Amino acid sequence: MAVEAVKAEPQPVRLAQLSTFLKALCEENRMRILCFLMQGERSVCDLAACLRLPQNLVSHHLSVLRELGLVAARRDVHDARWVYYSVDRVALAQLNALYLSFFAAERAEPWRPCCDPESGCCPECLITGAYLRRVFDGACPEAPW
Q1: Measured between alpha carbons, how far is 33 from 62 in angstroms, rounded to an integer?
Q2: Residue 117: pLDDT over 70
Q3: CA–CA separation, 12 vs 20, rounded Å?
Q4: Mean per-residue pLDDT for 7-15?
Q5: Domains along the chain with CATH numbers
Q6: Sign of the dihedral through C-alpha 50, 26, 21, 90
Q7: Which of 6, 109, 132, 134 has the greatest CB tally within 10 Å of its CB?
Q8: Residue 106's pLDDT is what?
Q9: What is the C-alpha separation between 44 and 15, in angstroms, rounded?
Q10: SS3 breakdown of the chain: % helix, strand, coil, rounded to 5?
Q11: How far apart are CA 142 and CA 82, in angstroms?
Q12: Residue 64 belongs to what H/E stretch?
């Protein structure tokens, strides 16, 4: 049996970046904030009223989204106490590209065991599932990670 070449894994730095985004976005209130900001620029007061959340909690979530670069802030030119938030379209497009580069359907391939009768595993290994332990423990040199 010929061994197929394993496709290269995406750059680890990119996976770390995607993981950071996904961890931040898995918080429901942050997703709700983004939904409102997708409709246009808003102040913390507007968002707090729409979301029925305290202003300090909305500010905290906006801070996390700003650190990621997904949300931009703009101070009112007439009253600097007022800050308006909006989605950074460039950052959103970059996040979409990063997300799709990892979760693209064409990347998903059928599973093929690294350890099977043709590659020298004994039948007991195949029956007990020991080959899976070899794959997930990193003992299998053909594991894709």
Answers
A1: 8
A2: no
A3: 12
A4: 58
A5: 12-107 (1.10.10.10), 110-145 (no CATH)
A6: negative
A7: 134
A8: 78
A9: 32
A10: 55, 10, 35
A11: 57
A12: helix 55-68
